[in-house]
Every structure is written in structure tokens, then in C-alpha cells.
Amino acid sequence: MDFVSQAWAQAEGAGPDTSAGLLSLIPFILIFIVFYFLLILPQQRRQKKQRELLDGLKKGDKVITSSGIWGTVTNLDKETATVQVADNTKLRLQRDHISSIRTTGES
After folding, report:
1. How far apart are CA 80 and CA 98, in angstroms?
2. Tens digit of each residue's pLDDT (9 = 90 or more) over 17-43
3. Whole-structure pTM over 0.85, yes or no?
4. CA neighbours within 13 Å on the CB side: how many for 2?
5. 69: which residues sit within 8 A by CB, 6+ positions away?
């Protein structure tokens, strides 16, 4: 019986403490906001830029793969690309592994 009365008394006193509980969440919310702007948002921008690069890929583009191989795109499929790296050497690889398109100033 004594246990029930103590629990009831604690429940009645919970009203003012709930605002203190909400105030303790503010640092966690601020940390999440900082992480969003420093980590999540830049990663989403990089992914969008990479997706646009792969969607705009066409035959004849001079590319660099994620492993550092330089070549020219000779054929494109839905998921693969054929890259010519030498006169008689062609590599077939996933489109996702093309990291950038070479500019005209690069040799």
C-alpha cells in the first residue's frame, strides 16, 4: 500500500519536470543540425553531381575511372560502359566507376 501512494505522489509531481526534460533535448537537436549541415548535406550534393555526370555521359567522352585509368568511352549500356585505354585495348566496366570527365586542358 505504501508503494502505491509513493508512485501516485511521484506522478503528481511530474508536471513541472517535463519542461526540464524537453530542455535537455535541445543539445541533441543542435548536434543533429550541425551533423546535417557538415556531413549529410555535402554528401547528398556530391551524389547528385556524380549522378548528373553519369546521366550526361556520351560516346567519345574522355574519362577517368575510380581506379585512375584514363580512357575514351566507346560504348554505353544501361549499367556498363566500354572504355578504350589504348589502340587495341578496351575495358568494360560499370558506369558507376567513372569518376570524372577529363577537360580539354588535360593531356
Report:
1. 10
2. 567 777 888 999 999 999 999 999 999
3. no
4. 0
5. 83, 85, 91
Give the domain ranges of the chain: 1-55, 59-107
5-9, Cβ contacts within 8 angstroms, sequence gap of 24 or more: none
Show the cell assigned to 20: 526540464
The CATH architecture of the domain made up of 59-107 is: Roll (2.30)
| Grid cell for residue 19 | 519542461
**Which triple of cell numbers denotes residue 2?**
505504501
- Distance, in Å, from the CA atom of 53 to the CA atom of 46, rounded to the nearest integer, reads 11
Torsion region of 58: left, alpha or beta (phi above 0 gives left; psi -120 to 50 gives alpha): beta
C-alpha cell at 27: 543539445
Distances (CA, A) of 99 to 51, 69, 94, 95: 10, 10, 11, 9
